[in-house]
Amino acid sequence: xxxxxxxxxxxxxxxxxxxxxxxxxxxxxxxxxxxxxxxxxxxxxxxxxxxxxxxxxxxxxxxxxxxxxxxxxxxxxxxxxxxxxxxxxxxxxxxxxxxxxxxxxxxxxxxxxxxxxxxxxxxxxxxxxxxxxxxxxxxxxxxxxxxxxxxxxxxxx
Length: 157
What we know:
alpha+beta, two-stranded antiparallel sheet, 8 strands, 18% strand
């Protein structure tokens, strides 16, 4: 979108023909088709890529009096161009997270459950340190799962 100071409505103008040909050769098109300044010419543009499958602009650009200036100072002699873009909302990335609500554990119940579970464990004759660690981890996770189960949620990043 912009102001080119090129009379786009005067198709006999060589500069206008070169501009339109250049846009076309790069796969672009200019959408404004009505006068955009008070002298009656098309000076302002909305340039988009040509795309038959997806229309970037919802409707033709609306050209209206900008209301800027007092008629004497002539702050601008251009009309306002309004464009409504038809853009798809991008998918927001998500991630799956797992956690436990540890703060809601009843500590007294947890201790009692852990003591009862450990009391019921039979010691092997001579377990290796690795076997002891694995056994203890399994017991602790089982008790923890009862008091603070794993919660899995999908979150938007």
